[in-house]
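Researcher: Re-running this chain for the archive, since the previous output was lost when a drive failed. Same request as before.
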Amino acid sequence: MSGAGARLLRMFEGHRLTPTQRRIAHCMVRRADDAPFLSSVELAELAGVSQPSVTRFAVALGFDGYPALRRHLREALPGPSEGGAPGAGAGGADGGGTAGNAYQQAVHAEIENLRQLAAQLADPAPVAEAGGLLAASRPLPVLGLRAAAAQARGFAYFAAKVHPDVRLLDEGGSMLDDRLDAAVRAGASALLCFALPRHPRETVAALEHAREAGLRIVTVADSVFAPVARPGDLLLPAAVGTALSFDTACSPMMLGRVLLEAMCDELPDAQARLEDFDVRAARRGLFAD
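Model: Regenerated structure tokens:
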């Protein structure tokens, strides 16, 4: 993440934003170098919201309107000479966003999300801390509902090869709290949650229940402004792509695999378990290759 993006994040933190306003904030962080030069109409189009929503967003941040917010950004954030020319991070063949057809633009946007994740991982401490928490939790509940269910299932599938007790929670309903309680009674100390838009109310409620039960929450979410985030949680952001009709989640999937690696680093018998699985898989002829 660029210095301008980090300063924007700090500016937005502490404000209670609506989902639409979080979408605008996320868009501005992604386009941090351009943000001081975008009109309210341009920002609305980029974020996929209405122009009045941009005005309400600026007021929610404490400004008289969007012109005042833009004026503040021009004074507070580095200009094109420091952070790149307007549009430099989003267009062209390397940055993605405006080059090529709509399908190519979607791919370029995902590449940019992965670049942001790579920059974020320059500080490995949060992921290492999360890996330690997940490795130590016996059992380890993994939560992901609706759009996030695929991420949770993928993580749980691989985690079960190295962790002795992984419990996948990918369905809501009245049994969800019961299954969380059962995990706590069995000794769980942490929960991994994948939280992606649109955020189900059941996910928010399940996390509140888990906190009340004493679980430490590690969350992979699309943004630090995600409605599931609470003080005390370990939240790891990974942006989703919004260029197609349905969101794309390459960055959250990659972050999930990075968390798996960090968890393996904390499990002394992880390699032995993997080797044992390979021997048994070969004996049973599980795979064609």
